[in-house]
């Protein structure tokens, strides 16, 4: 330790934002190689305070190359084979507040998807149920449409006001059905539409930004496009037997507008393009991520991976896609790339298959991932080798994750829905 205290290295600090941190511009500082994140963070704030009397201390993440500093400089330099004779450039990224445990809710079976709105939490499960809680964790309703596992779901309309009334949800079932259902203010659920067309389990459903179109995919390897508007042209009424009693619920049965076939294995994740409303993406176990033009009903581009996909999430402003695959590394793709590979980065940290990925609402860089290793991790896309935070709490494999309204949700084999705030 005495030797490390006596050895020094030169470092410089720069900001990740357009605003320069006072006192750091063009400054090169000698620091002991034993310095860790805390000491360097304090140093940045001291330099800024000395140059600006109104400076208020801030928490920075310190990025060297593509890795956040999580150990003393001496260890980092040795592990990354840095040259002691050169100035180490450290990027100061606005710090993340650690996610805080908020709720742990019990579900009836393995949790297949989790969702959040300003007033409620929603979870679907392998027993076919949909459970709704308020934001305090009080259960509002739980119901099952059919005795078939819910494999995918999406919120079409958020509740109106502070309750559950007005919630409209699409669920894809293992038996190939898709249901669109609406919740009343009293928590009662009514069917709006049954979407028939898939031959096997529906693994993913995703509604478009204007709420008029839904895309779905599943084990039949087909992407189907549905019209959610009140349009009679795609309504199919199955013939009723003479003595068949009419259902108490009045709903329509619809057939798909378009069926797209280009995958050779199960489709497990879908996203609408963030920049072109007529385009969408589908990810499959066949190791491919396809971009579709839904108006022309054709494939636009194909990204090939080394493994099958499990989940994708597209950033609403940058258009970058985070992908989860059947290994331990989330990956960053740029579908608009015209030079080199679509793959831009792989992120190292999980110890099991990545089951879910979601961009957060914090900024253009942060996302979360869930894994069979029982954890959820928060990442910054600029740091490939070190997650920002590890979020624990599950006792078994985590099957899904969600984010929104300042909350991180995860669900798994332990039937728990864990919620952290950030």
From TrEMBL:
Where it sits in the cell: the answer is: Nucleus, Nucleolus
Coiled-coil region: none
Annotated Pfam families:
NLE, WD40
Q: Record's Gene Ontology CC terms? A: nucleolus
- InterPro entries tied to this protein: NLE, WD40/YVTN_repeat-like_dom_sf, WD40_PAC1, WD40_repeat_CS, WD40_repeat_dom_sf, WD40_rpt
Mainly resides where? nucleus
Database matches in PANTHER family: RIBOSOME BIOGENESIS PROTEIN WDR12, WD40 REPEAT PROTEIN 12, 37
Q: What is this protein called?
A: Wdr-12
């Amino acid at each position: 330790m005495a030797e490390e205290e006596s050895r020094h290295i030169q470092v410089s600090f720069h900001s990740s934002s357009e605003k320069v941190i006072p006192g750091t511009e063009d400054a090169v500082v000698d620091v002991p190689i034993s310095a860790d994140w805390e000491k360097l963070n304090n140093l940045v704030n001291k330099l800024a305070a000395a140059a600006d009397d109104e400076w208020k201390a801030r928490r920075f993440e310190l990025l060297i190359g593509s890795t956040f500093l999580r150990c003393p400089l001496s260890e980092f330099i040795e592990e990354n084979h840095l040259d002691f004779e050169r100035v180490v450039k450290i990027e100061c990224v606005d710090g993340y507040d650690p996610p805080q445990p908020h709720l742990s809710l019990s579900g009836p079976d393995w949790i297949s998807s989790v969702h959040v709105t300003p007033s409620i939490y929603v979870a679907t499960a392998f027993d076919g149920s949909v459970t709704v809680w308020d934001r305090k964790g009080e259960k509002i309703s739980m119901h099952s449409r059919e005795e078939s596992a819910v494999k995918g779901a999406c919120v079409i309309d958020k509740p109106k006001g502070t309750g559950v009334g007005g919630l409209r949800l699409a669920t894809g079932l293992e038996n190939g059905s898709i249901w669109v259902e609406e919740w009343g203010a009293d928590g009662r659920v009514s069917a709006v539409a049954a979407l028939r067309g898939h031959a096997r389990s529906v693994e993913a459903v995703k509604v478009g930004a204007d709420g008029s179109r839904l895309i779905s995919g599943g084990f039949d390897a087909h992407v189907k496009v549905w019209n959610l508007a009140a349009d009679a042209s795609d309504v199919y009424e199955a013939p009723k037997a003479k003595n068949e009693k009419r259902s108490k619920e009045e709903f329509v049965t619809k057939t798909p507008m378009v069926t797209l076939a280009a995958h050779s294995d199960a489709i497990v994740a879908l996203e609408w393009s963030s920049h072109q409303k007529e385009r969408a993406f589908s990810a499959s176990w066949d190791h491919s991520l396809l971009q579709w033009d839904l108006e022309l009903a054709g494939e636009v581009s194909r990204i090939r991976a080394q493994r099958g996909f499990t989940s994708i999430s597209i950033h609403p402003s940058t258009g970058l896609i985070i992908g989860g695959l059947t290994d331990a590394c989330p990956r960053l793709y740029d579908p608009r790339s015209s030079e080199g590979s679509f793959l831009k980065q792989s992120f190292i940290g999980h110890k099991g298959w990545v089951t879910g990925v979601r961009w957060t609402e914090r900024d253009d860089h942060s996302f979360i991932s869930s894994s069979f290793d029982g954890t959820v991790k928060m990442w910054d896309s600029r740091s490939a080798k070190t997650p920002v935070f590890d979020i624990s709490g599950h006792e078994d494999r985590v099957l899904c994750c969600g984010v929104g309204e300042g909350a991180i949700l995860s669900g798994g084999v332990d039937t728990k829905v864990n919620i952290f705030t950030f």
